[in-house]
Amino acid sequence: MRRINVLAIALLLLLSGCRLNRPDDVLSPRRMEQFLYDYHLAQAVCQELPKEEKYTSPAYIEWAYQKNGITKEEFDRSLVWYTRNPKELARIYKRLDNRVDDEYRMVSRSLSQIEKKSFTIQSGDSVNLWYLDRTALLNTSAYMNKLTYRINRDTTFHNGDTIRLSMYGTFVGQDSLAHASAYISLSAYYADSASTADKLLQSSGDVELMLVLDSKRNLSSISGSVNYLDSTDNRTGILVLSGMELMRYHEKVKPDTAKITGSELPAAEL
To answer: Rounded to an integer, what distance in angstroms lies between the CA atom of residue 32 and that of residue 76?
Structure first.
């Protein structure tokens, strides 16, 4: 019995010695997780700011510190400890990833309910048809790597109308060795065919795609998607889409010449 007690004590000492001894001045895993969530959110907002508002970026970062009641020194000190204990840091980012996935699923369910409702298109010579949120975040998660839209034809569409999709894409936190990209498409479907304009966005910048509806065939629907592409499965990389618009112009109201930045794939008759 005495021998068993000695072995039990030795085992307990061994197990306690294997535990990480986190200093008192290092943030707990839960506080570190919450701060990193707010910090990355603030960084994404800063990346989206127009040039004339970039000077406000420090205020967004400071918001993350104030919200969590910590100082930059406390965060830096904690980050040093967690980087020296990468398994602990990996657990934190795994929970962050799950949290983002859960929140995106909730948003997706809400959006799907919106899409199921009847969508009434306004009349007029030029109308913005975009019915989803004008800002979106995409990453490599299966729940966050694609955005789709679809609008069925109604009486406000005319043969020969011009359809223009526009947005601004900002890549955040990309791997320096393997850059991410995004494939963006705009398609017009007819009874027996379709016409598509698309673009491969490889760096932050404006995106504008334009289609002119067939003058003789009746439109069935307009649809398209934004697909985030990253072969590295880099979960810290994000594509921020902002200012999304889907404009419809009647033939007598022509939009300005579409501005295309980056490499554009040619429109194709499918």
So the answer is: 11
Asked if 229 and 202 touch (Cβ cutoff 8 Å), the reply is no
Amino acid at site 17 = G
Quote the Cα angle for 233-238-239, to 5°: 120
88 closest CA partner among 26, 151, 2 = 26
Q: Is 263 exposed, middle or buried (0-12, 13-18, 19+ CB in 10 A)?
A: exposed
- E strand segments, the chain: 126-128, 136-138, 146-152, 162-172, 181-190, 194-201, 205-212, 219-229, 238-249, 268-269
The domains of the chain, with CATH numbers, are: 25-117 (no CATH), 121-269 (2.60.120)
Task: State pLDDT tens for residues 205-245.
Answer: 999 999 999 988 999 999 999 998 876 666 567 788 888 99
Structure tokens at 54: 């970039």
What is the number of H-type helices and E-type strands within the chain?
5, 10
Rounded to whole angstroms, the Cα distance separating 151 from 143 reads: 22
Tell me which of 54 and 262 has the higher pLDDT. Answer: 54
pLDDT per position as a tens digit, 192-206: 899 999 999 988 899
